[in-house]
Amino acid sequence: MLYLVIPVFNRWAFTRECLLSLRRQTVQGFRVVVVDDGSTDGTGAKLREEFPDVIIVEGDGNLFWTAGVNAGIRRAMELGATRVMTLNNDVIAAPDFVAQMLIWAERLPDAVLGALELDVATSTPIYGGETLDWRTNTRRDLLETLPTEKRHGLHPVTYLPGRGLLIPRRVLDTIGLFDEKRLPHYLADYDYTSVARRHGFPVYCNYDAHLSTYPDESGQEITRRHRSLKGYYQHLFGIRGGGNLRNFTHFSLKNCPKPYLPYFLLNGYARRLVGYFLH
Length: 279
Hints:
The chain is α/β, with parallel strands linked by helices. The chain has two domains: about 1-215, Spore Coat Polysaccharide Biosynthesis Protein SpsA, Chain A; about 220-279, no CATH class. The chain contains eleven helices and twelve strands. The chain has helices spanning about 10-25, 45-50, 65-80, 95-105, 140-145, 170-175, 190-200, 220-225, 230-235, 245-255, 260-279, and strands at about 1-10, 30-35, 55-60, 85, 90-95, 110-120, 125, 130-135, 140, 155, 165-170, 205-215. Helix 1 (about 10-25) links the parallel strand 1 and strand 2. The mean pLDDT is about 95. Keywords: Glycosyltransferase, Transferase. Belongs to the glycosyltransferase 2 family. Pfam families: Glycos_transf_2. InterPro entries: Glyco_trans_2-like, Nucleotide-diphossugar_trans.
């Protein structure tokens, strides 16, 4: 049984559109767990009224992404989940999204799978996974190298975001949950999929499964649109900061091969210190 885990904090309009897209799936037979982390916009009441089949896990407003996802996964596992998918609330799933994920999950039952992401406004592909060269801290964006005719099926990647991440039960039983202690918000998904890959579980981006996203609504983009010294501090040190130096250090120490670690850290610090003003 597949359980979809969606952490939310306010932004009911996004959550509603996401859940409506799941209602339109060509394949049903899955359950949805929404982790409502102390929303103040009436999300909980609206969920119960409009989506009574959704399982609600309530937080106190201090879970952030990682602990919220973990709370939902725990509930799903208690209910007998054989697969779990983490999903952000600001995505819209194509009608065959779940079907296409399950097709490949049946073929490769130990694989961790992500999805091809499209811009909700233009339907243009904007994220299709990447590979990382740890030696030089350089990333190869698959969308920049894959010809259009090859944008289908599975493509191996170094890690995946949690916006539409399918995790087999065996992976959860083997490596546990996301690292909420050291990575409370950003990089927890990249860390988790990196750890899974090191444990022998293949990690792929599934180009047959499509999610539409709002690239301008991400926390990092909003912060960069309103540059300030306070924003710069939050970028580097805040829990929701996309350039959080502490999170990057933990991610690097856990995942970067030791011979490449000094350069990887120095290069990553430099990028975060100046990147806020360059993008």
